[in-house]
Amino acid sequence: MKNLLNVLRDDDVDPALMQVIETIIDASKEIAFRVRQGALAGVLGSSQDENIQGETQKHLDIISNQLLKDLLLACAPVAALASEEEDTVVAANPSGKYVVAFDPLDGSSNIDINGQIGTIFSIYRALDSVPHSSELQFNQQGSHQVCAGYVLYGPSTLLAITTGKRTRCFTLDSTQGTFLLTADNIQIAKDTQEFAINMSNSRFWNENMRCYIEDLILGEIGPRQKRYNMRWNAAMVGDVHRVLTRGGIFLYPSDNRNAKQPAKLRLLYEANPMALLIENAGGKARSETQRILDIQPQQLHERVAVILGSVNEVDECLSYLHP
Ligand code: F6P
């Protein structure tokens, strides 16, 4: 089996970009080790702090953020960082070629229940037109990502990654400490009978979204004429990984719980990297109004509605939203 570095080399990935990817992978291996140790490593539970999004930070959120930050700041090709756990951009090497956005630990509510969690990352070329430490470095459309991926800490530790063409999956061989290629050129099934959405929010959705989900639930006796099953991991990494593996549709629609903040998921370090992985695996990733990868970001921590997965099912959903 080929290891990650050999695959990247065969793809002619820029050595500086490989260095950045290797650094993220090194941090993720350390996070994976601590996740596996759980209570023995003293990493469970919540801290007294909140992040910029007003969410209580778990100990493992803070540890993972610090690990990624320390290693990436010491990585010469990195010009700047943006993290879910940092209020503003973190400046790195002024002559670095790349900027990195990441969610150090997605699905934090799963930490204490031994559920799936993960690290999501997104890499762009640094812009010469703005200072290296400027937030404007990250105002790049998702289609400009040079690499996107996640590390899923589940029963095995998996890396899903794309550097532009294929979406591949690697499995961590913990005896060697290396990620080995276990799925090359992932292709998402075009049709599906599985959906993932937090149903408890249904009364806050708009009427069209409610109608789409109701028709899925009606199954073979409704207009869709097939039975659907629902799965919800409460960690985007777990749900997106299922979609990559066996098809499906994942939705986090906008809702009217909080007028100032209609969407939940973050564009830069959740929606964009997942959208690139999904599209490069033949799937589709939309907000409610446009292709996610075409969105022009305006703010570091901006949020966006997400509908992604099997092409025909995403199209079907959009036909309900825009009849
Ligand atoms: O903030 C991200 C996240 O944890 C996602 O990974 C996940 O899809 C979602 O929030 C879960 O939110 P909810 O609280 O609605 O289950």
Which short descriptors sum up this protein?
17 strands; 8-stranded mixed β-sheet; single chain; 323 residues; D-Maltodextrin-Binding Protein, domain 2; Fructose-1,6-Bisphosphatase, Chain A, domain 1; 5-stranded mixed β-sheet; alpha+beta; binds 6-O-phosphono-beta-D-fructofuranose; 24% strand
**Integer-rounded radius of gyration:** 19 Å
Number of helical regions: 7
Question: In this structure, how is the largest beta sheet organized?
Answer: 8 strands, mixed
Classification by helices and strands:
alpha+beta
Give the CATH level 1 class of the largest domain.
Answer: Alpha Beta
Provide the low-confidence segments as ranges. none
For the secondary structure, the number of strands is 17
CATH superfamily of the largest domain: Fructose-1,6-Bisphosphatase, subunit A, domain 1
Structure overview:
This protein folds into 2 domains: 4-183, Fructose-1,6-Bisphosphatase, Chain A, domain 1; 194-321, D-Maltodextrin-Binding Protein, domain 2 (3-Layer(aba) Sandwich). The termini are far apart. The strands form 4 sheets. It has an 8-stranded mixed sheet, with helices on both faces. It has 323 residues and is an alpha+beta fold. α2 packs antiparallel against α3 and α5 (236-246) packs parallel to α6 (267-279). β3 (78-83) and β4 (90-91) form a beta hairpin. The protein has 7 helices and 17 strands. The model has no long low-confidence stretch (mean pLDDT 95). Bound molecules: 6-O-phosphono-beta-D-fructofuranose. Residues 106-107, 198, 234-236, 252 line the site of 6-O-phosphono-beta-D-fructofuranose (F6P). Residues 106-107, 198, 234-236, 252 line the site of 6-O-phosphono-beta-D-fructofuranose.
